[in-house]
Amino acid sequence: MDLSKILSISGKSGLFKVVSQLKNAVLVESLTDKKRFPAFGHEKISSLEEIAVFTASEDKPLKEILKAIYEKQEGKAALDNKADNKALFAYFKEVVPDFDQERVYISDIRKILNWYNMLIEQGLLDFSEKEEKAEGEKTGEPKEEPVAAKPKPVVKKTVKSGEGTVKAPRNIKPAAPRQSKKG
């Protein structure tokens, strides 16, 4: 499950899938009605991968919350986001017992449950591949490590000026000495 390609756009209801990158925008497709349109940089766009929920200790990524709901519901749709506030808070407390009740509002809970139900309906939530990868790591399969790029060293050369010696980066040329006008 790759939530980095699923977007939430401020001012627009629902979720959107990234189709392609345009010159100054992102072409997105609505998950509900499949309409495509460009989303520009001035709109507040958030990838579901970047979203987290406040908890008592540290922020919990949305992916973990969705997985907890998925396990509780056994892969089926969750509680309707239009249920009463007490039922929503009680349900969310079962899923995320340590969420910060002062900073997580009922509107946030409604949005998360709506997103979850939308992703389940579209078949975009699948946590089995993550478990398979975790099992593969336990069996000792070689893991590729990223190769870090070596930083370029800064080379300095000494430039003589009238008042002493100055160290300057290589790409800066010393200024020609000024000739005074006596006249």
Layout: helices, strands, pairs:
Blueprint: E1 6-9, E2 16-21, E3 25-30, E4 36-40, E5 45-47, E6 52-53, E7 60-61, H1 62-73, H2 85-95, H3 106-122, H4 128-138, E8 156-161, E9 164-169
Antiparallel strand pairs: 1-2, 1-5, 2-3, 3-4, 6-7, 8-9
Report what the structure shows.
- With 183 residues, this protein is an alpha+beta fold.
- The protein is built from 4 helices and 9 strands, in the order βββββββααααββ.
- Among the domains are: 3-47, SH3 type barrels; 52-132, Arc Repressor Mutant, subunit A (Orthogonal Bundle), CATH 1.10.10.1650.
- It has helices at residues 62-73, 85-95, 106-122, 128-138; strands at residues 6-9, 16-21, 25-30, 36-40, 45-47, 52-53, 60-61, 156-161, 164-169.
- The N and C termini lie far apart (80 Å).
| Main sheet characteristics | 5 strands, antiparallel
Q: What's the overall average pLDDT, rounded?
A: 80
Question: Which topology of the domain at 52-132 does CATH recognise?
Answer: Arc Repressor Mutant, subunit A
Top-tier CATH class of the domain at 52-132: Mainly Alpha
Cα Rg: 27 Å
Number of helices, counting only DSSP H or I runs of 4 residues or more: 4
Secondary-structure class: alpha+beta
Number of distinct beta strands: 9
Are there runs of 5+ residues with pLDDT below 50, and where?
150-159
